[in-house]
From TrEMBL:
Protein's GO biological process: actin filament organization
Residue ranges occupied by any ADF-H domain in the UniProt entry: 5-139
Family annotation (CDD domains): ADF_cofilin_like (cd11286)
Protein name according to UniProt: ADF-H domain-containing protein
Signal peptide span: none
Gene Ontology molecular function: actin binding
Organism: Eruca vesicaria subsp. sativa
Keywords assigned: Actin-binding
SMART domains documented for this protein: ADF
Family: Belongs to the actin-binding proteins ADF family.
Length: 139
C-alpha cells in the first residue's frame, strides 16, 4: 500500500529484516533507501551483529537521505546491559531538496511499519549521530 503523502510503498523485506533485528538480533543496523523509480522503500545495507556505531555512521551517504535502524547496546547506571532500537532519519544538508521532501513526507508512515522502535533521531550531519547523542537518548 503506497503512502498517500508521497506515494511510497514499503517493500516487504524492510519489515522482515527489521523483525529479524528486533527478535533475533541478526543485524546491528539496517539502512533503508527510497527507490524513486519503483516508488518504494527498500533495504540498502545490513550491518553484521559485530559491527559498531562507527560502522553504522559510515554506512550513511554524505549527500543523500536515508532511513536507518540501529540496535544500540548500552550499560545503565545500575550496570545493567540493555539495548534500544533507534530509528534515524538521515537528511544531510547537502542532499537535494526534492530528496529531503520525499523522505520527510514518507517518514511517519514508514516508521509505523516498523513496530518496536524505541527512540527516533533526526540527523542532518554526522555530529548529530555521535555516539554521545545515542547515549544521551537512552534515559
Amino acid at each position: 500500500m503506497a503512502n498517500a503523502a508521497s506515494g511510497m510503498a514499503v517493500h516487504d523485506d524492510c519489515k522482515l529484516k527489521f523483525l529479524e533485528l528486533k527478535a533475533k538480533r541478526t543485524f546491528r543496523f539496517i539502512v533503508y533507501k527510497i527507490e524513486e523509480a519503483q516508488k518504494q522503500v527498500v533495504v540498502e545495507k545490513l550491518g553484521e551483529p559485530g559491527q559498531s556505531h562507527e560502522d553504522f555512521a559510515k554506512s550513511l551517504p554524505a549527500d543523500e537521505c536515508r532511513y536507518a535502524v540501529f540496535d544500540f547496546d548500552f550499560v545503565t547506571a545500575e550496570s545493567c546491559q540493555k539495548s534500544k532500537i533507534f530509528f534515524v532519519a538521515w537528511s544531510p544538508d547537502t542532499a537535494k531538496v526534492r530528496s529531503k521532501m520525499i523522505y520527510a513526507s514518507s517518514k511517519d508512515r514508514f516508521k509505523r511499519e516498523l513496530d518496536g522502535i524505541q527512540v527516533e533521531l533526526q540527523a542532518t550531519d554526522p555530529t548529530e549521530m555521535d555516539l554521545d547523542v545515542f547515549k544521551s537518548r537512552t534515559n
